[in-house]
């Protein structure tokens, strides 16, 4: 609800918002909707560097993966605590791999935000006249915060004063209470999120109408409007953030997935199909009934309780190569995360996995670039089409009897010309080691998350074909 109910303008906005909400619930019912899932290195991304070779992009993704995995380890099991600057929610750092576009407000402002399956709060860069110390001043005051490797292109700011559907969230609302920490010095729900790499964002919890372009839809104008979305209108940021904001797709209460389930008939479910790095096409993320995984051989595993509610965590029971099965250590939770490139498994699995692959793969060894990965082969003398046939399948045994088969494209990656490396490593943080199924392992898979059923489903798919109209 708006924080100042005596204002006629805000009262009018509230009426318009309610009307949009009514229309939205009826409109979004159908089969759901799909939007582009844009890899950060795609030519559609503002962060695409045309000077990078395909191998250089993969190497950069592997470097980011190490940072992301370390941050997930630090946040796993950490108890949130206030800082001297106010309440802090300690989350992951902000290396990211995928973006999605969202149109915010009425009239809409198009914003390209990080799509994050490892967090819940949606927040966007805002300018609404209630700015705390500016970005430049904040960075000066926190000189120790890490700076981006290169200056990001100018981002988009959402000007809430130009929208007829913008509202503020009161401190007594359920959304404000869902924040790990919130402060209410003036009856407005204010937040400060601090991430594992020292970055911070703060602002006002707000509501707005979000519009998504249904790239595979044929109904009406192809626009899906969802009213009353709770999001953070961020007025101050510092550190390594890039992009126009972040769309949380995790399992927490404030994520887009949970809000769609609460405010529409779509249910709390979404899926994506990740196109391999080597193919020049966008991936796709689906919401509602369209997110159902129906491909042959689909394997469903139950979600298990996680120390961080936003994380999608399943039970890893074994890893199989050929006829050799490696039993996972007791109680082996593994996070399914699109924002981490590599896959991370316990040392007790990685060491025998490397040993078995070394024995089975008849290729000369090679040194890993920057010692990032535990096993590499020299493929400079092998024709491209022959390499995959030389790599055995790796099968993950998950809870509930589910098995997920990883092909060569899911387990190995060419980090530099002629050097093929295992895209699996042990966590670097030995104090809080966290296992992760990363996005290379999920390439050419339709992966569906259903919070209503408490499941994750995997199925082999041709993701470039399923993205259809999203080819670039």
UniProtKB/TrEMBL annotation:
GO terms for cellular component: extracellular region. Keywords: Aspartyl protease, Glycoprotein, Hydrolase, Protease, Signal. The keyword Glycoprotein applies. It comes from the Eukaryota. The gene is LOC123058018. The active site is at residues 116, 337. This is Peptidase A1 domain-containing protein. InterPro entries: Aspartic_peptidase_A1 (IPR001461), Aspartic_peptidase_AS (IPR001969), Pepsin-like_plant (IPR034161), PEPTIDASE_A1 (IPR033121), Peptidase_aspartic_dom_sf (IPR021109), Plant_Aspart_Prot_A1 (IPR051708), TAXi_C (IPR032799), TAXi_N (IPR032861). GO terms for biological process: proteolysis. GO terms for molecular function: aspartic-type endopeptidase activity. Coiled coil: none annotated. Belongs to the peptidase A1 family.
